[in-house]
Structure formats: structure tokens, C-alpha cells
Amino acid sequence: MKRKLSLLCLFLAAVCLCAPLSAGPAEKIPVKVLVLDMFEVGKNSGDFAGEFQHYYERYFTSAGSYTFSSQPFTLYVNKDGVAGCATGMGKAQAASTLTAILADPRFDFSKAYILVSGCGGMPPERGTLGDVVIADSLVDYELGHAWTESDMPAGTKATFMRDKSYDRSAYIPLNAGLVKWAYGLTSGLKLTDDPKAAAYRALYGAEEATELPSVRTGASVTGDSYWHGKHSSLHADEVCAAYGSSPYMVTQMEDNGFGVAVQNYGKLDRFIVTRDIVNYDQPHEGQSVTESLAASSGAFSMGMTNGFIVGSAIIDALIAGWDMYSTTVPSAQ
Prior knowledge:
Elements: H1 2-18, E1 29-30, E2 33-37, H2 53-60, E3 64-67, E4 74-77, E5 82-86, H3 91-103, E6 107-108, E7 113-122, E8 132-140, E9 145-146, E10 160-161, H4 167-170, E11 171-173, H5 176-186, H6 195-202, H7 206-210, E12 215-222, H8 230-242, E13 248-252, H9 255-264, E14 271-280, H10 289-294, H11 300-320, H12 322-325
Parallel strand pairs: 1-6, 2-5, 2-7, 7-14, 8-12, 12-13
Antiparallel strand pairs: 3-4, 4-5, 8-11, 8-14, 9-10
Helix pairs in contact: 3-9
């Protein structure tokens, strides 16, 4: 009997030694730079390019792809630690997409930089079609108390009143040192121009007609509605002034949504927003608002190219200097 028990013990010990060890938690995939574009026109490669295509063709053709349940996007991550996706448009989708990405246990974003690269509009007196704006702050066009000009209180010209309880979402200053670093890195880059855009520019006046695309800095104003017109532009100026922001340089539909998610995950010091200009945010003389909205400025493809020129330069510099930038955020004082 004792012999049988000894043999049984030896057998069980052998089985235990041969059995595979239980799998521990999967190793997280480290991400160095996450680039967020909002949309693609068709396919990710080989056709008319939207915001994501140039990035996909440069960084993600051989990258791993990851889906998210109940989320309408695919995240790509390449071997160099560059990740990217087309997030969808509007503040709600931007915030929910970035939250889903940053919360996903498959990835390690502890040292990651987050780069938004998308298109936007601009007041015609502040720049030109094809410009790329590196945002120094994000301002929500809609969060606060507002009224139309027809309902303006007697004795005031105001159409907006700041409510400080909204400040965390409505006004998000970005890392000034990082903004200056990104501007210094890219301000000398040669951007493309387009004859159709130059002809459209000329309809706005001599100064705009003579300007060539360049990199600029300023506030980025976020609105879920694709607003248009001189008075809407003046309202955007009023909202920015209420927060003490720099004058707005670009309008778009997502940046404050991204900014809130970034704040929630403690990543604001590593957050960069770039916006390429594909339209003016108001009509030229003799043109109605609806005609302006329907017009082709000739700047869309040029904007996609210029946005990528600037965004890829930032990505490549961060990856090339990763030994330093993984622990020290770049800054130009």
C-alpha cells in the first residue's frame, strides 16, 4: 500500500512539473506617440486623402491593428511605438474615443505624447489657406452663457458671459514650453501651396492674396456646429477674451473634447494640437454665408499635406530623441 502511495505521489509530481505555468498578465504595448486624426474620405491608402491617409501610409501600413468593442474606429500601432487612428468628428466622439484608447489595458501610455492633427477654418485677416496652427490654448465656443444679438441686454454689446464652473472643459491652456518647441521645430518647414487656393484667397483682399502658407500659433476654438460668418467670428473673439486667451487662429469641432480626456488621464503636459487651414470662417465681400459654406477654397488637399508635413516632423523628432523625451518633455523657453 505504501509503495502504491509513493508511486502515486511521484506520478502527480511529474504531472505538475510537465504542466505549463499559468499565464501571467499580458505585457502592455508601449506607445510613444499617439496621433489622432478625425476622418478619412475613403480608404486609408491609395485614394483621395483625408486627415488620416498620409499618416497611415507613412507609419501604419505594416502596423498591428486593434479594435474596440462598441467604438467605430481601429487603432494602429507600429514597431517604433507610433499609434494612430481616425477618431470620428465632434466633441462627444473625440472625448469618448480618446478615453477608450487611454483606458485600454493592452497599451502603456505612461510616457506617450498625444498629437491631434486635423483641419479647420480661420478668420481671413489672421492667416491664409494652407497655414498650420499649433494651438497654445483650447476654447469651447459653446460652454458658458450666450445669447443672440437680437436679445442683447440694453447697454451692452456682449453676447457671452463666462461661467467659471465650466472652466476646466471650456478653457484649456496647453504646455507653453512644448508649444514653443513644436513651433521652433516646424516654423522653417516649406509648406505647399495651390493655385486654386491662391485664386480664392485673392477674393478676400490684397493682404490675404499675397500670403503663403506658414506655421503659426494661437487659440483653437471648438464648436460642435460648423458655424460660419463675421458675427459668429466676433462671438468667438468675445469668448476667447472672456478667458484671457490669445486671439483665436483656428476653428474646429473636437479639440476641447480631446483636451478634457487628456486632463482626466494626466497627460496635458504631453499634448500637442495642430490644425491645417482649409477654409476661411466667413464669406468674402459679395458672398453669402451659405455660398461660402458651399464654396471650394481649393485648400483641402493642400491642408492635408501641410498638416502631415508639420505633424510627421513632430512625431519623427520625438521618436528620434526618445532616450531624452521619454522622461523629459521638450521645451523652448
